[in-house]
Design brief:
Bound molecules: adenosine-5'-triphosphate, magnesium ion
Structural class: alpha/beta
Largest sheet: 6 strands, mixed
CATH architecture of the largest domain: 3-Layer(aba) Sandwich
CATH topology of the largest domain: Rossmann fold
Order of helices and strands: EEEHEEEHHHEHEHEEHH
Length: about 250
């Protein structure tokens, strides 16, 4: 699924005051592309994903999915939220199969498949409160993937995971992306992750969020985290966050 974001502005109204959150966002995401988005906390990344998903209203401008304006959420677009949002009254396997419209047997089969994918087969019958934060996040990823959406929006999906599980799941997401041909848009605060996963990295400025630069990552660069090229791209992105010399020294970059 392709996504086109044109002249998009977003303002929230709090106590009658307009708070600008996103400013003049323009972005074309190709069918099957993997886009990653980095930006400071509060710059509007989650809001942007929710608008693409049809879960948040647009103030000005438009968002098209496959050429059609987004009006409401649809099953062809999956979303993994920053907070996992599992339904506490459903067992893990029912949470994963929640969005599926098929027979019970098929739903259970697909849920089991996806729980295996994220390493949670042993917890299919657990309740969400019995999971650790990282496990709940993995269950949410399984749920996002279960409907096999043409567009998957991932909002800091690995935030609560330890470094090793994180790398494992990053690889898993890449594998799924290759196998499914789905379009992926992933928000992260981890610049390594953005370079590792993204074909293009969208760098956003602080609120009101604007796109500072869209950086294409040449094939092969993301795969080798230890390479000089990787470090160069990382440095280029970091410069947006620590623009002045003093803060670069402070953070030792
Ligand atoms: N429903 C809402 N009503 C009012 N303001 C909101 C609402 N949702 C978000 N905001 C504001 O919009 C801005 C952007 O929020 P958003 O959650 O999109 O940021 P973010 O880039 O995802 O940040 P983080 O990296 O911390 O997750 C923030 O200033 C936030 O306070
Ligand atoms: Mg967010």
């Amino acid at each position: 699924m392709s996504v086109a974001i044109r002249n998009l502005n977003k303002r929230f109204f709090v106590d009658g005051n307009a708070i600008p959150v996103l400013n003049n966002i323009n972005l074309e995401v190709r069918q099957g592309e993997f886009i990653t988005i980095v930006g400071q906390s509060g710059c509007g990344k989650s809001t942007l994903l929710k608008m693409i998903a049809g879960l948040e209203s647009i103030t000005e401008g438009e968002i098209l999915r496959n050429g059609k304006p987004v009006t409401a959420p649809g099953t062809d677009c999956g979303m993994v939220f920053q907070d996992h949002r599992l339904l506490p009254w459903l067992r893990v396997k029912r949470n994963v199969g929640f969005g599926l419209r098929c027979s019970k047997a098929e739903r259970e089969h697909i849920a089991a498949q996806h729980l295996q994918l994220v390493g949670l087969s042993d917890f299919a019958n657990a309740w969400p409160h019995q999971l650790s934060g990282g496990m709940a996040q993995r269950a949410a990823i399984a749920r996002g993937l279960a409907t096999n959406p043409a567009l998957l929006l991932l909002d800091e999906p690995f935030g609560a995971l330890d470094a090793l599980t994180r790398i494992q799941l990053q690889r898993e997401v890449l594998r799924i992306w290759h196998a499914s041909g789905a379009t992926m848009v992933l928000v992260t605060h981890d610049i390594d992750e953005a370079i590792f996963l993204g074909e293009r990295v969208v760098v956003m400025s602080a609120r009101p969020g604007e796109i500072s630069e869209v950086i294409p990552i040449p094939p092969g660069v993301g795969a080798d985290r230890g390479s000089l090229d990787f470090a160069r791209y990382k440095d280029r992105i970091l410069k947006y966050f620590f623009a002045d010399e003093k803060s670069r020294e402070e953070y030792n970059i």
